[in-house]
Design a protein that fits this description.
By secondary structure, the protein is mainly alpha-helical. The protein is globular, with a radius of gyration of 17 Å. The two termini are 16 Å apart.
Length: 102
């Protein structure tokens, strides 16, 4: 993200932030799910919001984001918003660049 910020590539920065937010959201959901399962057993513990996701889980989250963007491209094209569809395609390219590094 620092490289994108230094290069003043706002679109890449936004995509990286979106991916980080999706990963963080998944981590929090995993912590809440673990808390709910322990709490149902009568054990009083605090949820760990910083559990580490596996590489496969992160890979799946990124694939899910690509799928969301592809669906958005289709919807924008149907709606006649070609410019917004092109922006989404550019974001897909950026996401796929990081997907190959995992």
């Amino acid at each position: 993200m620092r490289d994108a910020m230094r290069a003043n590539d706002q679109q890449r920065v936004n995509v990286i932030r979106m991916l980080l937010a999706a990963i963080e959201h998944a981590q929090e959901a995993m912590g809440k799910q673990a808390f709910a399962s322990f709490n149902s057993d009568g054990i009083n513990i605090q949820p760990d919001r910083h559990q580490i996701l596996s590489e496969q889980a992160i890979h799946d989250i990124i694939l899910n984001e690509v799928q969301h963007h592809r669906e958005a491209v289709d919807l924008f094209r149907v709606g006649g918003q070609e410019k917004r569809a092109e922006i989404e395609e550019t974001e897909i390219t950026i996401i796929e660049h990081y997907l190959t590094k995992i």
